[in-house]
Amino acid sequence: MRLGGSSTARRTGGGAVDRRAILRVSVPVDDAWHVVMLRGPVLHVATRHRDEVEVWFLNDPELEPQSREFTVVGTGHAMPAGRHVGTAIVPGGALVWHLLERGTAAIEGARGR
After folding, report:
1. What is the 3-state secondary structure (H, E, C) of 3-19?
2. pTM of whole model > 0.85?
3. Strands across the sheet with 42-49, in order?
4. 14-47 as b/e, with b when 16 or more CB fall inside 10 Å?
5. Pairing of strands 21-28, 3-4
6. For the chain, what is the domain count?
7. From the DSSP assignment, how many helices (H) and strands (E) are in the chain?
8. Strands of 34-38's sheet, edge to edge?
9. Residues whose CB is less than 8 angstroms from the CB of residue 44 and which lie 6 or more positions away in sequence, other chains included
10. Which entry of 4, 13, 18, 54 is 20 to 30 Å from 92 by CA?
């Protein structure tokens, strides 16, 4: 799993320093669950390669990192227990991946829909 992006401090209109940044992690397409430490919500899911799904998230250094688990499944494949986070279409459209998150909060969120 790779982490991309860089964090830079910015001044807001009121002079306060905003240290949040949008970062990216890659989740392999390999039928396994992957633990990712995130400090904020997932913002977007996409792919540029057929063997990984990229996940952009808001990184807030003032938040405690949370251990979250993700896996990728293809359209028509068995879906393990978890919450659907997003869908990514491989360039050319031959494959469509679905990012799932598991864990107590993720499963409860999926049931509440």
Report:
1. EECCCCCEECCCCCEEC
2. no
3. 3-4, 21-28, 52-59, 42-49
4. eeeeeebbebbbbbbbeeebeebebbbebeebbb
5. antiparallel
6. 1
7. 1, 10
8. 34-38, 66-74, 96-102, 83-89
9. 55, 56, 86
10. 4
> Which of helix, strand or coil describes residue 80?
coil
Q: DSSP readout, 24-49?
A: EEEEESSS--EEEEESS-EEEEEEEE
Two tokens at 78?
């068995």
Lookup: tokens for 113:
């829909």
Token pair belonging to 55:
């996940």
The count of residues in the chain is 113
Beta bridge partners of 100: 71, 84
What's the domain range around 7?
3-111
pLDDT per residue, tens digit, the chain (113 aa), is: 555 555 455 666 666 778 999 999 999 999 999 999 999 999 999 999 999 999 999 999 999 999 999 999 999 999 999 999 999 999 999 999 999 999 855 544 444 54
